[in-house]
Structures are given as C-alpha cells and as structure tokens.
Amino acid sequence: MILVSACLLGYNCKYNGKNNFKTEITCLRDDLLIPVCPEELGGLPTPRPPAQFDKADGNALLDGLAGIIDINGRDVTNNFLAGALKALSIAKKNGVHKAILKERSPSCGVSSVYIAQKGEKPVPGMGVTAAILQRNGVKIISDEEL
After folding, report:
1. Which of 32, 36, 74, 128 is positioned for an S-S bond with 58, CB 3.0–4.6 A?
2. In the prediction, which pLDDT does 15 show?
3. What CA–CA distance (Å, rounded) separates 68 from 142?
4. Is the dihedral of CA 15, 17, 110, 89 positive or negative?
5. Is 3 exposed, middle or buried (0-12, 13-18, 19+ CB in 10 A)?
6. CA 121 to chain CA centroid, nearest Å
7. Separation between Cα atoms, residue 51 and residue 80, nearest integer Å
8. 8 Å CB contact between 32 and 65
C-alpha cells in the first residue's frame, strides 16, 4: 500500500480549493493507493488560508521547536500535527511502507518547505506529515521525483 497526498490524485483539497493532479501517479494500481490530506484530517477547511512554518521545519515541529502559522497570523500547529498523526495511524493500519507526497507543503514537503523567517523562497526541510512518517519507517517520495 502507498499513501499519497490526495491533491496529487485530483482531490480538490489544496489550500486554495484546487488540486495538484499528477498523471504519473495514474499508472499505479488504484487498489494500492491510499489518498490522504493531512490538513483536512487535522480539521482545517478547504479552501483555507495558506500557512507556513514560523522558524523551522516539520522535524523541528515534532521536537517542539517550531510551529505553523497561516497568513492571517492564526496558529494552526495543532491542526497540522493532528492531521500528521491521523495520516500515520492510517499508514500503520494499512501496512504502508511508502508515501508519495506533495513537495513544499507544510504537511507533505519531502525536501523543501516555506519558513516565514527564511523569506519567500522554499528552503530545505520536511513537512510535519513527511517527517512523522519517515520517523516511523515509511519511505518518503516527492511528487517531483516521479
């Protein structure tokens, strides 16, 4: 089984109500794919204000050293963490060993994310869901590696 960022499969769950559909994923067997949107799993609506890390990435968040703030200044750290934990639970329940995740997302970013204190360009780092999955033995693949 493969966990996949739902937006990559065409689900309109991206912060702006759209998706990031990737045709490359359609060549995989549907019965092997488990779509998840950690932000929706964490109770955030779609559409929702965009959000980014305040000072460090998902690994730092898991260690209690960072948070996630939306563009309105609202702290949504607990929503992102709750969604990551639910995604991890789904992965464990389904024997997931691989995940294909959307790059640069504060939830799913595999190798780059946006951090407010670092400017407007993405910087090296992981989203909170990517980080928690990796810490639990799931191989993480960026949608940009497909």
Report:
1. 128
2. 98
3. 21
4. positive
5. buried
6. 18
7. 10
8. no
Residue 26 reports pLDDT greater than 90: no
What does pTM read for this prediction? 0.96
Split at pLDDT 50, 70, 90, the class of 10 is very high
Amino acid of residue 138: V
Residue 52 CA to residue 74 CA, distance in Å, equals 11
Rounded Cα distance, 71 and 94, in Å? 35
100 token code pair: 């294909």
| CA pair distance 56, 20, nearest whole angstrom | 25
Rounded to the nearest angstrom, the gap between the alpha carbon of residue 125 and the centroid of all alpha carbons in its chain is 12
The per-residue DSSP string of 70-126 comes to ETTS-B-HHHHHHHHHHHHHHHHHTT--EEEE-TB-TTT-SSEE-BGGG-SS-EE--
Instruction: Please state the separation of Cα 106 from the chain's center in Å.
Output: 6
What does the alpha-carbon distance between residue 111 and residue 124 come to, in Å, rounded to a whole number? 6
